[in-house]
Amino acid sequence: MCTPGLDALPPNDGIWVEVDTSAQRLTLWQGEQQHWHCSVSTGEAGTGQREGSGQTPLGWHVIRAAIGGDQPRGAVFRGRRPTGEVYDEALGAEHPERDWILTRILWLSGLEPGFNRGGEVDTQRRYIYFHGAPADRPMGVAASHGCIRMRDDDLLRLFDEARPGTPVWLHD
Length: 172
What we know:
The chain is mainly beta. It has helices spanning 89-94, 152-161, and strands at residues 15-20, 25-30, 33-39, 59-67, 75-78, 81-86, 102-110, 129-132, 148-150, 167-171. Residues 15-171 form the L,D-TPase catalytic domain.
């Protein structure tokens, strides 16, 4: 893998996102300065690139799309579309089998052909997102199906500060 440096990425406003999967930690950077950080939950199956693996992909990515800016906190998404539901404990108890995608979606696209872009390793086609999760889901531990789960407050902050085109570096 030939991971590009930050200077080789598309131009942006200096904001970029780092996700350290071994620490289960997201850091938002402004250039070389840490702006803020939070705990997240990445793939329970670890890290990896392959479609169907349930793993969180590695390498440089970019936020492809920001979805749900007009939705309320706790809005439920299926297939990247709001269902009209707003998550609460009763809804969670009614559908315990669901992998809840809540509040907002920041959809990722890989930037490294053959590693996280194209073929069976394409992050975008794997539908890997930053997304909200119910408050009872643990953060700081790997427990997702490959996405990066976040608390609503942290996700809303990220959604406000990052936008399509923002670079994202996922590493372990």
